[in-house]
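Take a record:
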Amino acid sequence: MNGKNVIMLIVLASMWGASFLFMRVAAPVFGPVFTTELRVAIAAAALLVYAGASGHRPAILRQWKQYLVLGGLNAAIPFSLICLAELHLTASLAAILNATTPLFAALIGWGIDRKPLGWGKIAGLLLGLTGVVILMGWSPVGYGTWVYASVAFSLLAALTYGLAGHYTQRAFKGVKPLDMAIGQQLGAAVLLLPLALVFLPEQAPTANAVYSVLALSLICTSLAYLIFFRLVSQVGPIKTLSVTFLVPVFGTVWGALFLGEQLHVNTVVGLFIILGSITLVNEIRVFKRRPKSILPTGRGIRGDR
């Protein structure tokens, strides 16, 4: 994983961290299902406009069944579950729970593909989850049936993200990131449309809710998934899904800045622990050993300096 990929990972984390803020504002007004339908439909439209402006013709009809599956696993189901959870959880706590996605992805890879985890990745995953537990200290919520159910919804959303990452790698090899982004949003919009018509909003939308849906669609979905699918194609699903270790950091910061959610001093501690876990899971080497020359030294032949 090179420096460019790391920068893309951080930008993606900041966008997805903001998505929890926007869902927290929009979901109580539009409802979880209708919020998600608006999000994916507007995102799909924006991506189609971008494709047309750039002269790209998406080739998605040949794999329409696969895109329906992808749209369900990576958008319709998890987006709706998180919106439902945020009716009772803070944006920061929902973002923190989403950080379990890499753990589910690694376990799915081990169970389905028999990929060894290795002690380094196991340590990174455990370290990241430790950082997430520390971060939970500044997101106090009450306890009750709906709170526990909301935690379960968030964890189920993380599981579907893990499944989607592996499905993407198996079903869309060689497919362009723009095609995957468009196909996913269209697939999710088609799947959710019947439910969205049943669960129409019961109140007139506020200006903040409308702005939140637009930001959720254009920034946190259209642009973010272009980056996400590019990372999946370049570094694989497990390393890409480790972005969710950074998402709670941004989600908590955005929630504190714009929603007044409580922050504690343990922010810095949790941040450094999570960044350390990213290093372990992604196998980032700060210092690379210089390879030795295999050429024999002698007259007329120059060895390594």
Q: What stands out?
A: Confidence is low (pLDDT under 50) at residues 286-305.
